[in-house]
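Task 17 of the worksheet. Students: predict the tertiary structure of the chain below and write it out as C-alpha cells. Keep your answer in the requested format; marks are given for formatting as well as content.
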Amino acid sequence: MDHEKGVIVVDAIVTFTKEDYTKEGRRHSSDRIDRECQEMTEQWRRDLPVLQRYGQTQARYDLFLQLMDKHRLLREKRPQGLAEKEELVRERNDQVETGWDLASQAVSVLTPVAREDADCASRLKLAMPAGDLDLARALGSLSALLEEKAGQYPPETEAPALVAAMAPVRERLTVIFGLVDEAKGRPVADTAELDELDGRLYRMMVDVNAAGRRAVRAGLIPSRPPFYRFNHLRKSTRKNPDPVEPPVA
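Model answer:
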C-alpha cells in the first residue's frame, strides 16, 4: 500500500498462511534474504521512533530479529545435515556390500552340507536374502544355521570367525536403513522451514519498506541509503524475480 496524488494505493492486503509464506520464500535466495535483513535491521533501528507510528513497532522489530536468528541457524545447519546424510548413505552402502559378501561366504560353507542334509537344505533356502533390506534377517538365519551344523563342515572354513564377523554387520543393518531415511527427510524438512522463514522475513521487509517510504514522503525521515527498498533481491536469478519497488518520490 502506498499513496500517489492523494490516493491510497493498495498493493495486496491478503492473509498469509504458512503455505503462502513457504511458497513466497521459494522464490528468493536465502543468502540474499539475509543480506536484505542486515540492511533492514540497521535502518529499522535507526528510524524506529518514526516507524512505530506506521505500525512497525519495537515488538515487530524484536520479532524480526528473532526470525533472523532462526534463519541464520537453519542456513548454518543445512550443510551439516547434508554431510550427515551423505556419511550415513556411504556407511549403508558399505554395510550392505559387506553383508552380501558374508552371506555368500556362509552359503558357500553350508551348500555342501545341504547336499547331504535335507533339513539344512530347506532352512538354507529360507535363509537366503531377498534383497538389501532382508540382509539383517538373512545373516541371523545363516549364523544360526552355521552354529547348528558346526560338526558337518571342516574346520578349515573358519566358520566361527565368519559367525563373529556377521554379528556386528547384522546389528548395524537393522538400524542403518531407518537412519538413512530419517537423514534424507531432515534436509527436506529444514528446507521447507527455511523457505517459510524466507517468506515471512520478505513480507515483513515489504511492510517496513512501505512504511519507510511513506515516512519519507511525509518529511518525517530523510531519504538516504538503503532507501527502504530491496537492493539485493532485485538481482536475483530466480525464475520469478521480485516485483520492482516504486521509486521514492
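Marker's comment: Helices lie at 18-25, 30-46, 48-51, 58-116, 118-127, 135-148, 159-217. Residues 235-249 have pLDDT under 50 and may be disordered.
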